[in-house]
Records
---
Amino acid sequence: MNIGQAAKQSGISAKMIRHYESIGLIHSSARTDAGYRTYSQNDLHTLRFIKRARSLGFSLESIGHLLSLWQNQERASADVKMLAQDHIQQLNTKIRELTEMRDVLLTLVEGCQGNHRPECPILHGLEAGPNCSAAS
């Protein structure tokens, strides 16, 4: 199949497929005599694997590691589990940070009258920085 068909069937844009190839995440595709990229069902399976890993928030570096483990039949599942557990820790950190951001914004919004007056506790809170209260 050509790159357009591979993109459609994998859900990854042709541009991203070319990018993944350029950074070595996927192997260089076969080429027709005219120089067009061609992809096999195995390539499509790999692209779907990448898409799923990306949807779970794995970095491209981690996906490269996951792909090497996936393709290595001699791998230890403990290596895969450790990579997934590390990612879970990163996600938990990100969730905590996002929760803190949301909570600060909620506090700022609750302190705002939202009327026609120019006084704005939200802007004052942003101006004050993280170590000052919105009422400062």
---
Amino acid sequence: MPVFLVERNFAEKLEVSADGAAAINKINEDLGVQWLISFLSADKKKTYCLYEASSVEAIRAAAKAAGLPADVVVEVGELHATGTTSEIQKERFAAN
């Protein structure tokens, strides 16, 4: 499945409650989008998130349904079980 990098610009700090996070996860699940990991920029104005999804359109639809920006969406590759250096090693991002 393709992996996408999503850049989000926030003018203010984003705070999501546990219920809000559960709602976002449900939207993602319903649209076939799987969140992998997120990073906050040093200036705390942008987040960068990796997702698995079938298309850019699926990413944008999930973001719109969740009320989140998806300012830039770039396909960055696919996850493979082989874990070669040019591929993302999904198990590195799994919760322990």
---
Amino acid sequence: MAVSLTGGHRNDVTQVLPLLTATPPIRGRAGRPWRRPPVLHADRGYDHDKYRRLLRAKGIRPQIARRGTGHGSGLGVHRWVVEQPLALLHWFGRLRIRWERRNDIHEALLMLACDIICWRRLQRTLC
């Protein structure tokens, strides 16, 4: 999957559509694999009507919490699965604050950190 690496000052919502187009087909059920998810769940940071319209045009139902509303929708109540790996990656100071100007060096450090995290998990379970 080739997703472009962006700076830390970019708003996350601007990268939703490139991420969805770079997502590989979703396998698991019999038949043709899905090319896109049926629903996109997101928090209040993604609350922009422009991107809601673009998602609907692609056939994806946006389930995005509105700003200034209560937590009645259930979004934001549970911790998302991705928060644990991001917390683990913050163990590595060079990934917590990006000092590298070159994308290839930053991606190499990211892969190395993921390898170290997996190695530590495997050691704990196997030994």
---
Amino acid sequence: MPSQAMLNLFNSQIDMELFSSNQYRQMGAWCESKGLLGCARFLVQQAEEELDHMRKMIDFVHERGEMVVMGALDAPRHQFDDLVQVFRSGLDHEKKVTASIHAMAEQALSEKDFATFNFLQWFVAEQVEEEALFQAILDRMALIGSDDRGLFFIDQEIPTMRPARPAN
């Protein structure tokens, strides 16, 4: 059974995952309004992944015999200067999520709650991939450029991008 401190961290993280989903959906709406349909699809897919993360956490808390208590959410940002700002905001947000997951893992270890620590390892690895993916997108955008032709190519490529994995 997790401590109250650990439950509080789970509740906050569950809220953060739901906010992340809302933020990515809003970013996708911005992209769609600019005719960047490939980027919009990518961001909606990201939004769905965040909901999956939220559901995993809710299920884990319930499996441990506790109840999730969700809080109120802020409205996501909806105005961006350009596509680079959209993906820079995504990377910055993923870094905040990473810090939050790490704080949870640190708390679990300090409490010797090894079941929770083990559960969180998937999220630790996932965050490495998420940050790498957003950084790769920003790197690609820097290479291609953001003029009209660059945006066209970026919009075609982003939906196909996945985190690079080292060869085994």
